[in-house]
Each structure stands twice: as structure tokens, then as C-alpha cells.
Design goal:
Elements (H helix, E strand, L loop, with lengths): L5 E3 L6 E4 L3 E7 L8 E6 L5 E6 L5 E2 L2 E7 L6 E7 L2 E3 L6 E2 L13 E2 L22 E4 L1 H5 L12 H6 L1 H7 L3 E4 L3 E3 L2 E2 L2 E2 L7 E6 L10 H14 L3 E6 L7 H15 L3 E4 L6 H5 L8 E4 L18 E4 L2 H10 L6 H9 L6 E5 L47 H19 L4 E5 L28 H4 L1 H16 L22 E4 L14 E7 L8 E7 L5 E4 L9 E6 L13 E4 L3 E7 L1
Parallel strand pairs: 12-13, 12-23, 13-18, 18-19, 19-20, 20-21, 21-22, 22-23
Antiparallel strand pairs: 1-7, 2-3, 3-7, 4-5, 4-8, 6-7, 8-9, 10-11, 14-17, 15-16, 24-25, 25-26, 26-30, 27-29, 28-30
Helix pairs in contact: 7-8, 9-11
Length: 585
Amino acid sequence: MTKFKTKVGNPLLLGATKLLSAVNFAIVLEKKDKNPVLRIYKKGTYDIVCDLSFDDKMRFGDVYAMEVDDFDIAAYDYGYVCDGEMLPDDYAKVINHRDNWGDDELVTYSVFEDNYSWDKEKCVNIPFDEAVIYRMHVRGFTAHKSSGTKYKGTFKGVISKIPYLKELGINVVELMPSYDFIERNGEKINYWGYGEASYFAPKPSFASDKDNVCNEFKDMVSALHNAGIELVMEFHFVEGMKPYMIMDCIRYWVMEYHIDGIHMNLNAVPVNVIKSDPLLSRIKILGDRWELVNDYYTPLKGDKHLGICNDTFMCTARKFLKGDEGVAYEMSSKIKENPKDAGIVNYLATHNSFTLMDCVSYDRKHNEANGESNQDGSDLNYSWNCGVEGATRKKRVVELRKRQIKNALTMLFISQGTPLIMAGDEMGRSCEGNNNPYCQDNDINYVNWNDLKKNPDIYEFTKFMIKYRKEHKMLHMEKEPRMMDYLSKGCPDLSIHGIEPWRPDFNYVSRCFGLMFNEAYDDKKGKLYIMFNMYWEPQEFNVPANEPKMKWKLEFTTAGREDSEPKIDRVFSVQPRSIAVIREV
């Protein structure tokens, strides 16, 4: 039997840490009467080599620490046992026996040794006002048979789609949970990844090379960075998880995997703990509960690195889109919202809502496939099916749905907050009316790349709007427009209008308003005038007077192409349920 020499270890090095000629093992074990055992396995198997007991000298509070000399990490794996019960290593960096999606085998752990070179990695630092976020599920992004990659559902599959992301105009990717979460929840698959997990380890079943999971994740990060794209990781920490462990986890991913931000459930750890950590002072930290602290939006050292990410923009935009009453003022406010000391992330759909296509195709949810008698998921989707429930070939309905999608995308990309797209929404992805597909590991959740051929106009319009946003800085200023002419440029940086210039009409039945951006505040000539009409009839907008020797020119309209460039004098007719953008030239 193999013999190992042991001694008291370092309790500050939680998990398994490779030292010069030894490995330090440290585990937190609360309220146990018996000391734990370090179990050594033959590499890649469940064959037990030996058990090494922790003695009382190796206990520091609730931490047990042992140093094992001459531990060959290429020959052995490890685990913990106490009183016959297998114990998880919450700080494990490499998980074994979970190589395939859906595996629920007992796990062992490998000692992590960093052998990755970041020499060719380029640094990326994109402020919130310049960011365009693309949120994806690693498996769902390329698992569909139409994805065109041999590395389906993996980190390498994401790498293969970087040219697509660049072409679209994306510069930030957000991954839904990609650490090793527990995939089984009883008989159902935990597809999204919320729940119990090994938070320090990349997910083995998301890797194409099961022997190099950590390096494949790093390859993805490096490839994204070299393409000028940041990576944000979503973490959902379970209730009762200790704040110190959460902070250790975040720091580890930032330092070891070079991630550029986190999106987390802020109820898991005191907000001020996150905000006061100097190591995290320059990464993006997204959450929806910053109001839990009194110093609302106050970042560390003045850096704008905190991000507010909640459903308020989505709900308002959807209500305005379908023509609800009493929403026009709220929509205009959401478009200009851009807090001084925090980023704000706007989106039209998320993982537990209708997709963008489904919100114009269904009046009610269709979650029967989840096996809960359609009782799960939100009943309040602010959706409208445009006259037919679900998929249809009726040309009139299809055209109206696409116009509504273009309206929604226009509202998203002309808003001051950071835009976020759910993967597939740019090509009309549908979940068949399921607004809560948490357990659907199938085509309901996968991005169907055939939608690019089915809805090329939606894709092209999304790409156009991203480009248009980037070309006009007034649409994404560093700070919220003041709606004043504070630099004496002739008119305010942003002004709100009705169908009559300078006279906004926000009565309860109003479904129209106009926005004028003064591009002189970006040292350019002219103005942008955006007219919103969510009525089901055309509306005549009287446009503001031009500057001398200037005239209004149509930039685009979501109602479709004009047969000829319209002459814009003082009146412009905005078609039903559409948005028109004109520019002073």
C-alpha cells in the first residue's frame, strides 16, 4: 500500500493547493463530532488507495488542514469522508466523473495545477456606455444540430461562434451558470444551472476536451479577449452559503480565469462587502438589489463598475409595444435612464420570460412540456400575439410581428442604458410559448441557427441598430442626459416632444411621443428626432424647425422601406405601430 507522509497544513488555503513538493488539503467542517478523513483514489477511478485521517492538531476552528508530501497529482485524485458519509469539497477546482451532460455520478476531485500561459491575451476594458451584451447558455448556444460546429454545447463551440458575435457587433458575452452545477433535480434536468454547485470548477460537460476543462475555459476567455469581447459570468449562490466563500469564489474566477465581470444574486452576500473589495473594483458587478444599501449607486473610488439588471425596462417596453394605456411617460423615462454612478442594463427578454419572438406571438404561456400542468412560470408577460396564437403563415400577422420586434429593438438600442440581447433573439428564436423552460434540454431551449435563414431581416435589423447606436454617441452617453442646454448649444442635449414639437402629451390614452437628441453635445452638427407611434393608426407628427441651411432626412423607419425618400417639411406621417428616425443634415 502506498504510504504518504503528512503534517499539519495551512488552514488559510481552503481546497487542495499544490505546493512545491506537497499538496495542502483544507476543508471546512462545521458541527461534526468526528474528524474527517482524506481519501486518496487512483487517478480517474473510484479505486481507493488509502485514507488519511485528520487529527486534532490539524483542526483550526471548523477548518481541518493537512499537508501531504510527494502527492503525485498525475496519479491520484481525492475526496473526503466523515463517519461513512462522503463530503463535498466546496473549494474543489477540478471535478471528476461528470464529463457528460446529465451525469449524476458520485464525484472525486483532482488537484488543480495552473499550467496555462496568458502571454497572447489582449486586455479588454469596455465601459457600460460602450457595451453591448449577449447573454447565452453555453450548451444551448451551439447544441442544436444546425449550429455548424463540431464542438456542440461546449466552450469550444462558443469560440467557433466568435466571428458571428463580432459581425453582429457584440463586445460583452454573459454566460449563464457555467461552473459545475448539479444537473439533476429529481427526474428533471436542471438546465439553467441554478441551485447546488461546485462553484470553483468550470463545468466538465461544457468542455469538448474532458481532460483539459480548465484550459478550454481559459482558451475561450483568451479568444474572446483577443476579439475585443469581455466575458461576464453569472453566479447564483444558494441560500445559506457563507459570504467568505462567495467572495473567495468571485476573486478566484477573476484571478484564475480573467473574467471581466459577474452577475449574481445580491441577496446572497452583504452588498457593501462586494463593493468594498479592492480586487473587484474594476470588474463589472451586475445585480438587481443595489437598493439594499443606503448609499445607493455609490461605487468604490468613483469607478462606474456596478450594474443594475432587472425587469423594469423589459416590462415597460412590452406594455408600450402592445399599445397599453398610461405607459408613454414611463417609456420615455426608461429610455433616458442612466444613473451617474452605476450602469443600467436593459433587455427585452430573459431566461424566465417569453423570448422576443414569443412576446409578439403568444397571449398566454404554454408550459405544458414542463410537466406542471402549465402552473409554473409568470402569468404576466405583457405580450400580444398580433391576432393569432402561436406559429402562423398568415402574411399580415408575420409582417406585424416582425415590425413589433423591430420596434422593440429600436427602443432597446436608442436607450441610454447598456443593451443586452438573449441569445437567438436577434434571429427570432422561439421557445414555443414556454416562458419558463428550466427543465428543457432540447430544441425548446437551443438556439436554432436555421432561424438566420428564416428571419434574416430580424438579424440584419439587429446588426444595423447596434451599428447605428455605436455611430451616435448621444444614444449612449456616459451620464444621463440633463434635458438642459447647459453648454449653450442651441437646444437641450435631449428633449421630449409630442405630435407637436416641444409639447409632450402624456395623458392616459397617449401612445405617442418624440425624442430629440442634440448631437452638438457630441461635437457634431444637427439633431436626431425619433418619433414613436404605438397607435394602430397613422399619426401626423409636426417636427421641430430646422437650423438655417439644414433639413430633415429620414434615417430609417420600422414600418419598412419607403418607395422614395420622403420630403420632410414640417410634417411626417408615422405609420401604425412603428418608429421613425429622422436626422438634421
